Amino acid sequence: MKANIIVKNLKNNGAAQAILKKVSAIPGLSEINIDAEHSKISFKYQSDEAVFKLLTTLKNLGHPYIATRRSMAARFNNELLT
Question: Which span out of 5-14, 41-50, 58-67 was modeled with the highest average pLDDT?
């Protein structure tokens, strides 16, 4: 499946490259594209576990996602806040 998320604190291509390096190693994610100008990460995923790992990694890197009611990431919100 394909998804897009918006993250905080993504201000330049250096941050985008650091994120890409870390999240590229997550099994189950592919076709990862980062648009620093719009703070957007697009990717394909094979499981919810891969998405959860992505969101956790982003949070640990200081780039938490912005959950909206319509975002696919919103359903992981409670698990990440605990």
Answer: 41-50
Cα–Cα distance, 2 to 59 (Å, whole number): 20
Q: What is the SS3 string spanning the chain?
A: CEEEEEECCCCCHHHHHHHHHHHCCCCCEEEEEEEHHHCEEEEEECCHHHHHHHHHHHHHCCCCECCCCCCHHHHHHHHHHC
Mean of all residue pLDDT scores within the chain: 86
Distance CA 65, CA 62 (A): 10
Residue indicated by tokens 């891969």: 50
How distant is the alpha carbon of residue 12 from its chain centre? 16
pTM across the whole model = 0.80
Give residue-wise pLDDT tens across range 17-30: 999 999 999 999 99
